[in-house]
Amino acid sequence: MKKARFLIPPFMLASxxxxxxxxxxxxxxxxxxxxxxxxxxxxAPMPQQMIxxxxxxxxxxxxxxxxxxxxxxxxxxxxxxxxSSCPQGYTMVTVNGNCKGLELDHCCTEKHSGASGDCRNxxxxxxxxxxxxxxxxxxxxxxxxxxxxxxxxxxxxxxPQDYSWTALGKATATTIAxxxxxxxxxxxxxxxxxxxxxxxxxxxxxxxxPGQSASWTFYGLxxxxxxxxxxxxxxxxxxxxxxxxxxxxDVRITFETRSGGENATVALKNTHPEFKMPADTEGWGYQTxxxxxxxxxxxxxxxxxxxTLTKYPNDEDVAVNRECCSIEYV
Length: 330
Fold this sequence. Notes:
Strands 11-12-26-17-23-22-21-24-16-13 form a ten-stranded antiparallel beta sheet, with no helix packed on it. A four-stranded mixed beta sheet has the order 5-1-2-6, with no helix packed on it. The protein has three domains: about 50-100, no CATH class; about 105-170, no CATH class; about 170-330, Jelly Rolls. The termini are far apart. The chain contains one helix and 26 strands. The chain is elongated. The protein is mainly beta.
């Protein structure tokens, strides 16, 4: 007995082949897209232009650069109009232009398209995972930031792809003084010191009414260690036309954190409590000090902090100026 043979009709065979081919094409397209997304796309350079030297009767094809580099012809050479050809009687030669990388975020990020940018002023912050440019190599570097090491090359000093870019324009608005291992940050610009309208005497503004306040804004603070807000206002208890010495008082301090503002009461302790007296001492014995520790997990990741001092409804007056609040750290 013969076994029956099962034959596939021609139209079914054709349909199967079409489906197989479609699947193959889809797989190939997916592979191409994956490769395009996983590899950096390099931008095409600008088209070459014809340059001439009329003194030497020479021509050359010149590449003007790309999105990350700008090139100019050598001295004595001029760029002809687009699609121009070498003048008759001139000789074609090869010349090198004067090329300069551009200081742009894109051109100093890993796996960027285009030629190498100018990344010598690139600085990085590994804690906040940010990159920025200093306006010049001599600029003061804010705490937590690192400039290009001496053994690094500009082409290898790039911003990681998972970092974000930020501006450090305000980072130099504060002054950082170093005393051995201790750093003292002070407000430098008047715009970053604000005080309520009060009685201004000899460089100090007196806060006499409850709720009157003063604020200081600091930039470029480290975010990987605890900070100390240090205060050195003047304090007196009014007596006649002046005030007495040796008085201490409490004030409210508000400072910015990662999650918003936080309040604390700080005691301003007089430096001469032994001479506490109601008699007018003409400013002597008014000096006080106080401080508040800020844990590192509360510091804003951008390194900025505004500190506000507010007078309580107590008997003492408090005098402030731009220099009487600072931030200290080791």
